[in-house]
Amino acid sequence: MAAAAISGAPARAASAKRLYDLAKPEDQLSAMVKVKGSLEPEDCPHWYYGTIYGVLPGKAPVPLVELEGSEVDWYARQPDGSYFQWSKTISYFRDIKTRQYITSFNNPITGKVNTIVPNTINVKAHYIYSTHIFKRSDEAKEPAATPIIGDYLKWTESGDWAWLNTDRPYPPGLPFGESQSSLFPLAELHDPSLKKVNTSFGNPTYISPWLFWMDMKDHPGHVVWAVQAKKMRSVKEYPRAFLNLLEKNNPDKLSAKPV
Hints:
This protein is mainly beta.
């Protein structure tokens, strides 16, 4: 069945009763939080796995390392109806061929051996989402005069399933970009008894400069992270080997609850 892509309200699926009218900005905001996190203030862990590619000008992308990671999100509704989102994120790296965890890397671009450091996001800022603004809290940006949420969210449906496509907001001038496609059952989105939806993230794509441990700051180009992700009920659902690493080396990344 062909998907119906619409900016705003998606086509009606016959099997789904509608809790949200996605033509309304307030409903779009609630639906986004329910899909990507939870309407309740609680940890929403996501496990992901994928490949990092090196992109050099005029050349085909080079697969460099595989990665396995965790992003734990915490959404909290504010008195004005907006949501704040806090995140704790970490990625460990695996060899492309053996798929074993690695602490050193034979860089095929430079020919050097690099010592690997797990990738963590340690920004103290949180994200602010409302019908009138999408931004990081350290970004000097004022709310729009009219709702702009429809410019950031793209809803697509196919039968009993739907996708939400979003781009993570970054302050101007930072050389980063991230696009996510969240796949979920329509019936769960529109079920008033559920505060969150079982979501998988199809091919989140993250574009960034070379990782610092690659020692390539003077090389033209960048890296592209291509991964698959799934929202879990608890970090205890993570693969055991990965969870062991996380509990031993980075227990501070197990929860995003704001202090």
